[in-house]
Inverse folding.
């Protein structure tokens, strides 16, 4: 049903109320969320199945939800979007954690709401979502006995925020059906050479720990029981200002059957 003028104004108001958007998402009626990254411009690099009818999908580190809602748009039967329960729940260093602890409860709640919660909710309401559900967990706590298994597990641009990406990938594998697949992207400036290199980044104020070379990510995926890597691609993610450049590696990993 087309939106009324009042509904359009109300949606514009809700979008404008949120200060921190990660994704630019087209909500119709000329309304776009004012995020940093328009992922629609980079979708071809992810080689998502054109149609995802009937699939059960896990989107880990969903942020403001571009990918989760894209999976639903492509027909996924169920999308579970995973996000950390709070800003504090990132893998911060003790020093950064102490700085965060010094913030007031009101300030913390505002960040949690604006960065972790509200954007995703507003997009879901605007798109009339029916098959996307969000849960609050760290990647380490994704267990198949609790969540079941998925045809498609997706992890976009989040493994660099994780102190133990190998345990994280083990969890992604646990949640992936034997005939399913993981689609994973990482930020990495390391070259695509045979030697599997990981570089400690240590930008602890941004919670960035590791950069893995493409060969390193492939090797970790294989050691975590993914048999076959395919659809390897690289691209440079830019924010909407064009000032921020993030070299990115994407691939699909298929479990050992
Ligand atoms: C850079 S954003 C990527 C958003 C989206 N996946 C994409 O590709 O556009 C990374 C997201 O991962 C989440 N994240 C960071 N550490 C996490 C962890 N340990 N477990 C689950 N999610 C995490 C962050 O809160 C953030 O929403």
């Amino acid at each position: 049903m087309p939106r009324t003028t009042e509904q359009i104004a109300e949606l514009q108001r809700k979008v404008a109320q949120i200060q921190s958007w990660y994704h630019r998402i087209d909500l119709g009626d000329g309304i776009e969320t004012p995020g940093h990254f328009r992922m629609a411009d980079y979708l071809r690099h992810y080689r998502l199945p054109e149609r995802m009818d009937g699939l059960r999908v896990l989107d880990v580190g969903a942020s403001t939800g571009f990918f989760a809602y894209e999976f639903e748009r492509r027909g996924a039967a169920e999308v579970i979007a995973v996000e950390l329960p709070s800003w504090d729940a990132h893998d911060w260093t003790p020093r950064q954690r102490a700085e965060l602890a010094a913030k007031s409860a009101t300030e913390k709640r505002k960040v949690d709401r604006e960065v972790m919660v509200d954007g995703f909710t507003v997009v879901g309401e605007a798109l009339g979502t029916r098959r996307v559900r969000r849960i609050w967990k760290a990647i380490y706590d994704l267990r198949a006995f609790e969540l079941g298994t998925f045809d498609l597990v997706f992890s976009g641009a989040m493994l660099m925020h994780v102190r133990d990406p190998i345990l994280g990938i083990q969890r992604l594998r646990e949640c992936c059906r034997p005939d399913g697949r993981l689609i994973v992207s990482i930020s990495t400036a390391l070259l695509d050479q045979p030697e599997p290199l990981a570089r400690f980044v240590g930008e602890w104020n941004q919670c960035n720990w590791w950069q893995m070379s493409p060969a390193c990510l492939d090797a970790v995926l294989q050691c975590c029981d993914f048999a076959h890597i395919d659809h390897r691609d690289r691209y440079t993610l830019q924010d909407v200002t064009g000032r921020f450049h993030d070299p990115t590696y994407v691939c699909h990993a298929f479990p050992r059957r």
Remarks:
- Residues 61 and 158 are 6 Å apart (CA to CA).
- The chain has a mean pLDDT of 95.
- The longest helix spans residues 105-127.
- The radius of gyration is 18 Å.
